[in-house]
Amino acid sequence: MVGTVPYGAVRLPTVSRTSQADWLAAAFELLSSGGIDALKVEPLAKHLGVTKGSFYHHFEDRRALHLAVLAAWENAGTEAIIVDVDRDQSEPAARLAALVDAAMVADPTADELESAIRAWAGADPEVAAAVERVDERRLAYVTDLLVDAGFSRAVARRRARLLYRAMIGAFFWQAAGGPHTTPTERRELVALLLAPG
Description:
- It is a single chain.
- By secondary structure, this protein is mainly alpha-helical.
- The protein contains 9 helices and 2 strands.
- It is elongated.
- The termini are far apart.
- The relative contact order is 0.12.
């Protein structure tokens, strides 16, 4: 199993020379900066300073790399964050605040990666299915937090969707050079989500 190291809202695989994790880390970089068209074997090999033969040692083909990138993104950008939030906080309100901080902290690479994967999903049904799965997992987690905080499931789901829309908007805005959310804005967002209603 590949380890992880903090990389803002996304946890990228740790790497050792020309391992599968190297290829995934390089793929994240190229996908973030150039979109899916940049995610090709030859540019990746050049980026890593290795031959294409190393790629085929780790992946059957380019599509296998794509699927590995999606799985790593899903784990790093969703499951690993949920595990961290649940491990570090017990109260629903504190977990929600920790989640918002983890997901919305300034990290240009994470914002670019999220934006690139969502753009890629527009042209690839399998990627779209992965994004839909991630979206549903994230929404379900926030919904459950809000239910635990005392809201009905219907209200919790609506508020989870509002939060998620804000987060997605922040990814795109920040990736396009817009301002990052401040700690004060994040606290106010959490307060709005937890307000009686």
